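Request:
You are asked to prepare a plain-text protein record giving the amino acid sequence and the backbone structure tokens, at your earliest convenience.
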Amino acid sequence: MLFHLDIKAETEQISFSENSGLVKFFIESKLNAELLRGFYKCLNISLNKIQEKNFLDNKGDELIYYTEKSEPSIIFLKKVKTDEDFTVDFFRIYFAGLIPSLVKKNIKSVNVILPFYNDYKATFAAEEYFLQTFIEGIMLGNYTFDKYKSEKGKPGRLKFILHYSNNKLLARIITSTQKLIDSVYFTRDLVNEPAITLTPMEFGARAKRELNRLGVTVKVFDKKELERKKMNAILAVGNASGKPPCMILAHYKPNTKSKKKIALVGKGVTYDSGGLSIKSTTGMLEMKADMAGGAVVLGIIRTAALLKLPVELIGVVPAVENMLGGNSFKPGDIIKSYSGKTIEVKDTDAEGRVILADALHFASQQKPDEIIDFATLTGACAVALGLFSAGLFTNYDKLANRLLSSGSKTFERIWRLPFWKEFNPLIKSDIADVSNLGPKWGGAITAGKFLEHFVDKKIPWAHLDIAGPSTKHDYTNYTKNYDTGFGVRLVVDYLMNN
């Protein structure tokens, strides 16, 4: 982390400390010289005329003003265009960019005058979530992964004092949001960890250490247990690695009566070389993050435990390394999965769907009300949707619509792709029940269709292909440098509101 953050809700009265900053937002359509000068008069500060003119004349949407005194020493003014381009991500992106800029400014505290919710009701359906995005931005902008750097700065302390008309509401939102984003941190730490240290069994050990203390029951099926249960699909993919495979089970049961029982299944390939269908060096470079789906599952369950959500969750994460060796599974192999269905292997680099076959059948046996799975499953999905959005595959409209709504609200966006029965023949095998690879076209869809074979048809199920947005990208200030933890905020919102 860049700073040890202390985020507090305060009354409308602002008092500045030494080496402090101030953040103020203006709606551009309402901004004029009188309003701007009135704001500065209250602070007993004179604004440079050129800066004032440029800020008012739309020559810039941000003004950073260094005062001649230390209380406050810096004022950040930001104009907001509430037009068709304004989104619920605006304040999150702004603060995620502000935090790194403060590292070398010797600022000890920042006062933020939060704008009135009524001015943003057209975009934010709820005041609570409007406030939440400010805290999310501050915390997401503070994230770093530098544990393996020999030279790194020691995080300083930074206090954020948020001023809002409803102090009690704001304090409550700060508390809940900190628990949520702490879980996003946990997820991102797992995903950004190198495969040399995050082996399949270590993945399970970290799940135990983190979740047991929160009252979540965690079991890890080791290789012997997988063999006893005949989870041959997981075993086949993990067989060539010197790091044995496992399956992580995390069970959160609320103290109160649960509204639903939901199984969350996550792909946990801690490293993917492609197996005998080997990837290029460039293709392997980010494959430490091929377990992002499993990390998301654990992050969601961690949040549910911290927030005491009234929903029972069963997390299922098959964890393997897909490596090359004398024991590698091979193109042409036939694997009898845990469900009894047989899989023809046409490509060992389509391994994620193979391990999920056993995991989804196990999840179905738990008789949940719903199953949602998360997987960095296909490059084809990222090609189709880019890095902005995950692919959603389901035949259950109610489940789809609720997930889409939470995706839109949290700006962890998902897009529903076709999942028609006409795709089924594309993964037909002449020698087994199903092939693990379809033809060239529609690769993300046929991958989902493969998974469908291993889910109880009576259970509503959704598959989220997060290959694109789980990867670091330059499109927002909070996704630039590290893999993102995409999916935690989305599904926690879903659980809280459905």
Notes: The chain has 15 helices and 18 strands. The domain at 184-497 is CATH 3.40.630.10 (Aminopeptidase). The first strand starts at residue 3 and ends at 10. Residues 457 and 484 are 32 Å apart (CA to CA).
